[in-house]
Amino acid sequence: MSDWNLKDQTAVCGVGHSSYGKRLNRSTIDLGGEAIRNALEDAGLKKNDLDGLIVSFGTPIGADADTLAYALGLKLRMYNQTWAHGRFTASCLQWAAMAVKAGLANYVACLASISFSGFRKPMMGGASDGEGAREGGGGHGEDPVYGMTSPGAGSALIAQKYFAKYGATSRQLGAVAVAFRKHASLNPAAMMRNPISIEDHQNSRFVCEPLRLLDYCQINDGAACVIVTTSERARDLQKSPVFISGMQGLPAGREEFIWTHPGFGVAQQSVFDYQPEPQPVYQMAGVTHADIDALFTYDAFSILVWTALERWGFCRPGEAAAFTQDGRIEVGGDLPINTHGGLISEGHIMGWNHQVEIVRQLRGECGPRQVANAQVIQWANAYGDSLIYRR
Amino acid sequence: MSNYTKPLPAISTLNGPYWDGLKQRELKMPSCNDCGKLWYPPAPFCPECWSRNFTWRQLSGRGTVNSWVVFHQAYFSSYKDDVPYNVAEVELEEGPRLLTNLVGIANEDIVMGMAVEIVYDDVTDEVTLAKFRPVK
Question: Are B79 and B85 contacting, i.e. CB atoms less than 8 angstroms apart?
């Protein structure tokens, strides 16, 4: 443990992104190249400094790591990619941190680049949905044979059960969408900037009932990149380092279903009264919930914010519906969440736009949506992985 | 039957006996002869004790609705005349949960925990799906 205690040993030294939009008509390589370039510039690094690359949400939908390295003329000592599934953000950053600490690379660019408009057929759900072809329906438990397709459907299954189990309502869930849109309205990079009301949420059409259009994330084009190095190197660069203080791996197995915590009783999960045990990420970072100045979470669908809050113990099972009301998760509230607008309103860059925002918050670069005196920020997901960053 | 255009299962070495069972009007899942564990989706060994000594056990076909959704969007063109259609997760009496469609009930009448039983739906000459209807 002692030699491999990575607390504050590695840091983010640069962040960058492309423009985000519904139909940019640009390839993943084009967008990814722009994000990497911007991140290097932010760090004050040159092309040839970059010797590591980790592509999240890679082939076949996102950017292909080989093609990207080739197109950018990179000379890499270490690279990798995850398949086209969104939940590997923290995993990629963890691998990058371990790689730089172990000396496998000096500067690792971690990114996702997607161009949904680049495909003529819809890529999430329906005939081109690779998820449903996986044994057992893959991570979302899809089953196209019964018309069960798209990531949102598994979330809707959770929402329906959540509503019934705890007496929560779609109207309460609307508070999540309203908060994130409010954040996006303060963010020039966000795709959806017009404020919405609970009534707008309630009047939006069902996609997969009980989830409505405004419970869903954007489907868009864009790329976001984070550069990881050792804290020692980061201290010598132009921007203040943002340290990776704690990390917790992505769990898997029969007790896990991507959109909720164990014990919830969907897919093949057991049913039990879930209690968030002391989570290793807090212990590693040496912080408690009270130290977390803002929370960022994978919000492909609004309900995931509730299950994440409960999984990580910010509130008890069944309490997230009430917890997210009255501006508590907005900037200025007790626990601001996804201050850039999240996947729901800034854009769906697979959680990489969240990492960019976390770094900017900890540097104090967020202008009207800045969380006052942000020191410690957590990335923590319904599916159970986490990072804690500090400035 | 031959004009069935909805997605069909990828029948494999792993899940073949499951689909063969449905065709013969039997809902079967692998059950461990050593520790008694029943599992789904099919895998070639017991997730509990890793024994490869298992039997495809016939189940009752009865269960309860654990959750459900209603699709208002047709992701597959073959479903465009079916929206809004339901997909339910049924918890079988024996424990495992299956995704399915509820038949013989209007979407708005579906209730959490309602008792259901299997209906075999021969959608093609080769494939029979496991659907469920309310227990009368």
Answer: yes
Per CB-CB distance under 8 Å, the chain B contacts of A205 are 72
Considering CB atoms only, which of B70, B73, B97 is closest to A267?
B97
The minimum CA-CA distance between B55 and chain A, rounded to whole Å, is 20
> What tens digit of pLDDT does each residue of B85-115 get?
999 999 999 999 999 999 999 999 999 999 9
Which residue, among A368, A351, A362, A371, has the nearest Cα to A390 in the 3D structure?
A: A362
Q: What is residue A292's predicted lDDT score, i.e. its pLDDT? A: 98
Residue B2 has pLDDT above 70, yes or no: no
Contact A15, A42 (CB under 8 A): yes
Q: Check whether B1 has a pLDDT greater than 60.
A: no
Cα–Cα distance measured from residue B77 to residue B12, given in angstroms and rounded to the nearest whole number: 25
On the CB side of B33, CA atoms within 13 Å amount to 6
Going by C-alpha positions, the residue among A66, A385, A136, A297 that lies closest to residue A144 is A136
For A158, nearest residue in chain B (alpha carbons): B67
Give B 73-102 residues with CB within 8 A of chain A.
73, 75-77, 79, 82, 84-85, 87, 89, 96-97, 99-101
Distance (Å, whole) CA A172 – CA A176: 8
All structural domains of chain A, each given as residue ranges with its CATH number in brackets, are 10-119+151-390 (3.40.47.10)
β-pairing, B28-32 vs A386-390, is: unpaired
Q: Rounded distance, CA A369 to CA A378, Å?
A: 17
How far apart, in whole angstroms, are the C-alpha atoms of residue A31 and residue A18?
A: 6
Architecture (CATH level 2) of domain B60-136: Beta Barrel (2.40)
| Neighbouring residues of B109: CB distance < 8 A, sequence distance ≥ 6 | none
Contact A184, A193 (CB under 8 A): yes
3-state secondary structure of A206: strand
ipTM score above 0.90: yes
